[in-house]
C-alpha cells in the first residue's frame, strides 16, 4: 500500500468512526460515495501527487461535519419517505446518561454522608482524649471534666 | 462564542431545505457526475460548508427518487456515476420555485430586505 492509499484509508476510517452511530446502511452509503469521489478525483490528477490527494481530502472536509450532516439528514426526510426512529434511541441514550449522572451524584452524596459520620465519630473520640491533656479555657466552669 | 454558534446554526438552517433544490436546479441543466456536481456547489461559499457534506444530501435525493444515477465509462480513468433529474425531481423543483418566490417575497417584506438603499 502506498502512502497515498494509507492517507485515503485513514480519512475514510475517520469518517467511519465519526459516523459510528449512523445506521449501518447509511454509513456504508456515505463511505461508498466518498470513496467513489476520491477515486474519480484522483484519476483526474495528472500526475497524482500526495499534495494533490491531500487537497482532495481537504476539500471533502472534516469527517465529523460530514457525519453530522448524514445524521441530521436522517430524521428530516421528505414526506414520501418512511419516518425513521433515529430520534428515539438518541433520547433514550441521553436519559441513560442522566441516570448515570444521578447515580454517580447519589453515590458521592452517600460517600460524603458516611465520611462525615466517620469523621465526626473520630473527631469526638480524639477530642475526648485530647481534652484531658489540653489546657481548658478558664472561662468554662460549666464543663463536667473540670468539676469531676 | 454563542453568537458565532448561532450564526453557523442560522446558515445551516437556511441551507437545509434549499440546498437540495439547488442540486436539482443544477441537474435540470444536464446530468453531472458526483465530483463535478459537488465542486460546482462547493464553489458557492454561502451554500455549502465542504464538498463532503453534500454526499449525505445526494444520497437522500436518490432515496426519495428525485435524482437517479447511472455509471458511464470515462474518457480516462475509472467509470463515473452520473446524476440526473427524474420527472419527480423536476416536479419538485417547479414546486419549490413557486413556493420560494412567495416565501422570499414575504420574508423580504417583513424583514425589510426588499428596501434597496
The largest sheet of chain B, given as strand count, sense and whether it forms a barrel, is: 3 strands, antiparallel
Residues in β-strands, percent of chain A: under 5%
Shape of chain A: elongated
CATH architecture of chain B: Orthogonal Bundle
Structural notes for this entry:
Chain B: InterPro entries: Metal_resp_DNA-bind_regulator, Tscrpt_reg_PadR_N, WH-like_DNA-bd_sf, WH_DNA-bd_sf. Chain B: This is PadR family transcriptional regulator. Chain B: It holds the Pfam family PadR. The complex is a heterodimer of chains A (148) and B (117). By secondary structure, chain A is mainly alpha-helical. Chain A has two domains: 3-84, no CATH class; 88-132. Chain A contains six helices and no strands. Chain A has helices at residues 3-18, 24-43, 50-60, 63-73, 87-133, 144-147. Chain B has 117 residues and is mostly helical. Chain B has a single domain (2-111), classed as Orthogonal Bundle (Arc Repressor Mutant, subunit A), CATH 1.10.10. Helix content of chain B is 58%, strand content 12%. In chain B, strands 1-3-2 form a three-stranded antiparallel beta sheet. In chain B, helix 2 (19-28) packs across helix 5. Chain B is globular. The two termini of chain B are 31 Å apart. The mean pLDDT of chain B is 90. The interface between A and B is medium-sized, with 29 and 26 residues.
Give a brief description.
With 148 residues, chain A is an all-alpha fold.
Topology, element by element:
The complex is a heterodimer of chains A (148) and B (117).
Chain A: H1 3-18, H2 24-43, H3 50-60, H4 63-73, H5 87-133, H6 144-147
Helix pairs in contact in A: 1-2, 1-3, 1-4, 2-3
Chain B: H1 2-15, H2 19-28, E1 32-33, H3 34-42, H4 54-63, E2 67-72, E3 80-85, H5 87-111
Helix pairs in contact in B: 2-5
Amino acid at each position: 500500500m502506498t502512502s497515498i492509499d494509507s492517507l485515503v484509508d485513514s480519512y475514510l476510517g475517520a469518517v467511519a468512526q465519526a459516523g459510528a452511530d449512523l445506521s449501518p446502511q447509511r454509513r456504508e452509503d456515505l463511505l461508498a460515495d466518498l470513496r467513489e469521489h476520491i477515486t474519480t478525483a484522483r484519476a483526474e490528477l495528472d500526475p497524482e501527487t500526495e499534495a494533490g490527494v491531500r487537497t482532495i481530502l481537504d476539500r471533502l472536509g472534516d469527517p465529523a461535519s460530514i457525519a453530522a450532516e448524514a445524521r441530521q439528514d436522517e430524521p428530516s426526510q421528505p414526506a414520501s419517505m418512511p419516518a425513521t426512529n433515529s430520534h428515539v434511541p438518541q433520547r433514550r441514550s441521553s436519559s441513560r446518561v442522566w441516570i448515570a449522572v444521578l447515580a454517580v451524584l447519589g453515590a458521592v452524596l452517600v460517600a460524603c454522608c458516611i465520611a462525615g459520620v466517620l469523621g465526626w465519630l473520630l473527631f469526638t473520640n480524639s477530642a475526648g482524649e485530647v481534652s484531658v491533656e489540653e489546657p481548658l479555657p478558664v472561662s468554662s466552669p460549666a464543663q463536667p471534666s473540670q468539676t469531676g | 462564542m454563542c453568537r458565532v454558534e448561532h450564526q453557523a446554526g442560522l446558515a445551516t438552517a437556511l441551507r437545509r431545505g434549499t440546498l437540495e433544490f439547488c442540486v436539482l436546479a443544477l441537474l435540470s441543466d444536464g446530468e453531472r457526475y458526483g465530483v463535478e456536481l459537488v465542486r460546482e456547489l462547493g464553489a458557492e461559499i454561502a451554500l455549502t460548508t465542504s464538498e463532503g457534506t453534500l454526499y449525505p444530501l445526494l444520497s437522500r435525493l436518490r432515496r426519495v427518487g428525485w435524482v437517479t444515477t447511472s455509471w458511464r465509462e470515462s474518457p480516462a480513468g475509472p467509470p463515473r456515476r452520473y446524476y440526473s433529474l427524474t420527472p419527480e425531481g423536476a416536479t419538485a423543483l417547479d414546486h419549490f420555485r413557486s413556493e420560494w418566490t412567495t416565501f422570499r417575497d414575504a420574508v423580504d417584506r417583513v424583514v425589510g430586505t426588499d428596501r434597496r438603499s
